[in-house]
TrEMBL record, chain A:
Localization, UniProt: Mitochondrion
Protein species of origin: Balaenoptera musculus (Blue whale)
Protein name stated in the entry: Small ribosomal subunit protein mS31
GO cellular component: mitochondrial small ribosomal subunit
Predominant subcellular localization, coarse grouping: mitochondrion
UniProt GO MF annotations: structural constituent of ribosome
From TrEMBL, chain B:
Region of interest: Disordered: 569-588
Family indicated by similarity: Belongs to the mitochondrion-specific ribosomal protein mS39 family.
PPR repeats: 158-192, 234-270
Molecular function, one GO term: ribosomal small subunit binding
Main location: mitochondrion
Top-rank taxon: Eukaryota
Pfam families: PPR_3, Rib_mS39_PPR
Swiss-Prot/TrEMBL keywords: Acetylation, Mitochondrion, Repeat, Ribonucleoprotein, Ribosomal protein, RNA-binding, rRNA-binding, Transit peptide, Translation regulation
Any GO BP: regulation of translation
Function comment: Mitochondrial RNA-binding protein that has a role in mitochondrial translation.
Ranges annotated as biased composition (Acidic residues): 578-588
Organism: Balaenoptera musculus (Blue whale)
Protein's name in the database: Small ribosomal subunit protein mS39
Gene Ontology cellular component terms for the protein in this record: mitochondrial inner membrane; ribonucleoprotein complex; ribosome
Lineage of origin: Eukaryota, Metazoa, Chordata, Craniata, Vertebrata
Length: 371, 588
């Protein structure tokens, strides 16, 4: 239902006295849904203010400009910074048409967005933004309230836009679409947005504020660009994260050397005496404090009861008689021995067992009961 | 300065002691420490197992004795015993890693680069050629060396054998052979592991005489083969790709970004080395062109507040390149961001070895001098120098220029005093700069006195330098400045002595200097001095001589003989000077 070649034009008497801000918003909304003006109005409109605008035709604005007027305001913003070399008043040229075509194509998609706009308008904006917008508005010959509200709204939209992009909505108006459809009026305009950042930054003007805002916006919108975009599309996430059932071989020489190199990356000479002491402690040159009498001594993990209760090793020996007596005395002595490990004590008992077994015949002669 | 050399001395003493203990282990057997301290005992580098057996071979491999292992292997084969696949693989590992050379021992206090023969070095005595383990750059892979021979001799080979050979070849710069071996591996229907693929990527980039597009396509092919063979890429895969892309200059920019995104998409977190390679790629030239990218801002935004652990051996190069970019972009905010990142968590350990740290801080401080207010710069000066790094003389010159811009020249004597402590006593450019800044304008008297003291100090350094060297170290400009400073501070005696030095070193005084001397002579009311000046000017045949003479005549009352002497002098000069006014000479 949108006639081709026509322009969306908000029904706003810009040069008249100040309607309320909300009224402007509503009217703007209404314009999006279908009020149409012819191009003649535009011509008239711009005819009176040729001095101010510089690059109306070439639009290097980022995204989502719905109405021509808001776009112009953005140009004003930029135009205030840039040397006005050409004054381009006519708007009936083909470049406009083409650019508007792309806009029309995407307006449909954008129908949803403006509905959210009124709610978001009540969101608090940063006072700097408001101050900046009012400063700009003050300097323009139009109605100040209108311009200010326009500016704020436009900035708001851009913020939404970048937010939306971050959230990952389907691309509405893609940047490249606009640029590809636009005829390049000047080479400067078709370039990527970073350029205004530099321009604004290098200008010594009172409006550094606004410049910085724009720079921050641009930087933020540029922020994820190194991570967004085409990738090689060779690997799949699934294939990489699933655990491959590979057996871990013993680390080869390559692995050992690599881990040594990696450890060397972080090496720094000692910054203070504490680091020196830490290193010495790790090497074993320095004791660990508080001192531990058993530092470095593990005793094969055996407990005290394994040292003391050695009766279970006497099961094979006769239950009575001198041998038993002897062995019991021996276990008593062994249990008090702090220098032998459990294994050594058991070995002792083993040795005696073997000894008595060998000398069995002598013992039987002395009629000592053996079992 | 002393603490630095003290720490180095301490470390080298430790190394020397370790060397002695390990060379004569039989004298250091007593072990009285309880609990036992292993690092005090001598280490054993000689193989203990004698005889020909696989165990002996394994021991020699473990001790990294290349020649001994190869000999043992040959002996085993001759004796007819088969060597197990695993041991053979380990032998191959050793050979491929070391490039058929003896690896260096850990005694890195002897860092003489000895000429490497490509034959295996003789082992056994401790006078082996010592080199740092990292300096394998000189080692190239010869054809038909031991590794290839043994590889051919092995009855069975598994994937590991091929992989280790490929890795060895790439490490020692034989990329085409590596690629050929890879095709052989594929023909045998074996599967390479991820490390081998990383080496192969490097190999494709090393091959000469191919265009960048071809190389890039080859790399992409390799990656697709990785997918086909179900080999998971790791961080090193992507870092190797980026490292190779660096050589492709402008062509590599887009592929690099694609690689980065691929990495993120798979879930492999980029390390500092990744960003280092990207920075190197995008900011290859020193001067920023108009089209220089904003990538560094994106990278810094991404990295803010993150803490890192070492994942890649090149991680410690990031901060240096980041600061280099900040310096060339002249962006102080960004430099502060980078510095904050350095100070987050334990990231300061990634600053790298001494020379890298010095580079980073020199660039940082240079940028501060250039862009920051002088008070903040001085605060940084106190913080950083000398506790964090020793300034280059250029750094100090930058600081002096910053002081000049901020009109804080009274700090110059202090800076000179500091410079002497940092070892810049005999640096000409620094002294020139200091003298020039002091002598350029007139200053209030106390400051002038301080400047004159400083100048006297500098003069003494010149003199002591003269005594030591045969070549004269004085420069005409320094003589000028020092003389001017003396004059202005009222130290006329010394100033006059300076004039003598001019003649001695055959340097020409400047016109302003002579005028100042004239003024001083007038102030002290001594026509003799004035005549001295004119004589000096005459001796050097300076064109200013006439104006001096005029001034002399005008300001002073001269005795007759003085006038005669003057007459001769001016007659001489009026003949020799180019634009002489003969009236002056004749007007006597």
């Amino acid at each position: 239902c949108i006639p081709r070649g026509k322009v969306f034009w908000p029904r706003l008497p810009l040069c008249s006295g100040g309607p309320a801000v909300s009224a402007a918003a509503i009217v703007l909304l209404a314009s999006l849904h279908g009020t149409v003006r012819t191009k003649n109005n535009i011509q008239r409109y711009f005819g009176t203010n040729s001095v101010i605008y510089s690059k109306k035709d070439g639009q290097s604005v980022p995204t989502r400009e719905i109405s021509k007027e808001t776009k112009n305001l953005v140009n004003i913003l930029k135009g205030m910074k840039v040397e006005l070399s050409t004054v381009n008043v006519q708007t009936t040229k083909p470049p406009n048409r083409r650019q508007l075509k792309s806009l029309e194509a995407s307006i449909g998609r954008l129908q949803k967005a403006p509905e959210d706009a009124p709610q978001k308008r009540s969101e608090s904006r940063s006072p700097e933004l408001v101050a900046a917008a009012s400063a700009v508005a003050d300097s323009l010959p139009f109605d100040k309230q209108m311009t200010k509200s326009e500016l704020l709204k436009q900035l708001q939209q851009r913020e939404e836009g970048s937010r939306a992009r971050r959230v990952g909505e389907r691309p509405k108006i893609s940047f490249t679409n606009i640029i590809s459809d636009m005829k390049v009026a000047r080479s400067a305009t078709a370039r990527v947005s970073p350029r205004p950042v530099h321009q604004i930054q290098f200008d010594e003007g009172t409006d550094d504020f606004v410049g910085q805002e724009k720079a921050a916006h641009l930087r933020k919108s540029f922020r994820k660009n190194i991570f967004k975009g085409k990738r090689l599309n060779i690997f799949e996430l699934k294939a990489v994260t699933e655990e491959a059932p590979e057996t871990e071989a013993a680390p080869s020489l390559w692995d050992v050397e690599f881990s040594k190199q990696l450890a060397a990356v972080n090496e720094q000479p000692f910054q203070n005496g504490f680091e020196e002491m830490i290193q010495s402690t790790k090497e074993g040159k320095l004791w660990e404090f508080p001192t531990n009498n058993e530092a470095g001594f593990d005793d094969d993990g055996s407990e005290f009861h394994e040292h003391i209760f050695l009766d279970k090793y006497l099961e094979d020996f006769p239950k009575q008689g001198p041998i038993r007596h002897f062995m019991e005395l021996m276990t008593c002595g062994l249990s008090k021995d702090p220098y032998l490990s459990v294994k050594q004590k058991v070995e002792h008992i083993e040795q005696f067992r073997n000894y008595f077994n060998e000398k069995r015949d002598i013992l039987e002669e002395s009629s000592i009961q053996f079992n | 300065m002393e603490s630095h050399s003290f720490l180095l001395a301490k470390k080298s003493g430790e190394n020397a002691a370790k060397f002695v203990i390990n060379s004569y282990p039989k004298y250091f057997q007593k072990d009285i420490a309880e609990p036992h301290i292993p690092c005090f005992m001598p280490e054993y580098f000689e193989p203990q197992i004698e005889g020909i057996s696989e165990a002996a071979l394994q021991e020699r491999i473990k001790l990294r004795k290349v020649k001994a292992s190869v000999d043992m292997f040959d002996q085993l084969l001759q004796a007819g015993t088969t060597v197990s696949l695993e041991t053979a693989n380990r032998l191959l590992d050793l050979l491929c890693y070391c490039g058929n050379q003896e690896p260096s021992t850990n005694y890195n206090f002897q860092q003489r680069e000895q000429a490497e023969e490509l034959e295996e070095a003789t082992e056994g005595n401790n006078e082996k050629p010592k080199k740092k383990a990292g300096h394998q750059l000189g080692v190239t892979w010869r054809a038909k060396n031991n590794a290839e021979r043994i590889f051919a001799l092995m009855p069975e080979k598994n994937a590991h054998s091929y992989c280790t050979m490929i890795r060895g070849m790439v490490k020692h710069r034989a990329p085409t052979q590596a690629l050929n071996l890879y095709t052989e591996l594929l023909n045998n229907r074996l599967r390479a592991d991820v490390h081998t693929f990383n080496s192969l990527i490097e190999a494709t980039a090393l091959v000469v005489n191919e265009k960048f597009e071809e190389k890039w396509n080859n790399i992409l092919d390799l990656l697709k083969q990785m997918v086909a063979q179900n080999v998971k890429p790791n961080l090193q895969t992507f870092n190797t790709i980026l490292k190779c892309l660096r050589r492709f200059h402008a062509f590599g920019k887009l592929p690099a970004l694609q690689t980065l995104r691929e990495m993120k998409a798979i879930g492999i977190e980029p390390s500092l080395a990744t960003y280092h390679y990207i920075i190197q790629l995008f900011y290859q030239h020193e001067s920023p062109s108009k089209g220089s990218s904003l990538i560094i801002y994106d990278i810094m935004n991404e990295l803010m507040g993150k803490k890192f652990s070492p994942k890649d051996p090149d991680d410690d190069m990031f901060f240096q390149s980041a600061m280099r970019v900040c310096s060339s972009l002249r962006d102080l905010e960004l430099a502060y961001q980078v510095h904050d990142l350095l100070n987050t968590g334990e990231n300061r350990k990634f600053i790298g070895p001494d020379h890298r740290r010095n580079f980073y801080y020199s660039k940082f401080f240079g940028l501060l001098c250039l862009m920051e207010q002088i008070d903040v710069t001085l605060k940084w000066y106190k913080d950083l120098i000398p506790s964090v790094f020793f300034p280059h003389s250029q750094t100090l010159i930058d600081l002096l220029q910053a002081l000049d811009v901020a009109n804080r020249l009274e700090l110059i004597p202090q800076i000179w005093k500091d410079s002497k402590e940092y070892g810049h006593t005999f640096r000409h450019d620094l002294k020139e700069e200091i003298l020039m800044l002091m002598a350029r304008d007139r200053h209030p008297p106390e400051l002038q006195v301080a400047f004159a003291d400083c100048a006297a100090d500098i003069k003494s350094t010149y003199e002591s330098q003269d005594a030591r060297q045969t070549a004269p170290s004085w420069l005409a400009s320094s003589l000028n400045y020092i003389a001017v400073l003396f004059l202005r501070a009222g130290r006329t005696q010394e100033a006059w002595k300076m004039l003598g030095l001019f003649r001695k070193h055959n340097k020409i005084p400047r016109n302003e200097l002579l005028n100042e001397f004239m003024g001083s002579a007038k102030a002290s009311g001594s026509p003799a001095q004035a005549i001295e000046i004119v004589k000096l000017a005459g001796a050097f045949s300076l064109p200013i001589c006439e104006s001096l003479t005029q001034r002399l005549m005008a300001d002073f009352t001269l005795s007759q003989e003085q006038k005669e002497a003057l007459g001769d002098l001016t007659a001489l000069t009026s003949d020799s000077s180019s634009d002489s006014d003969n009236d002056v000479g004749e007007g006597k």
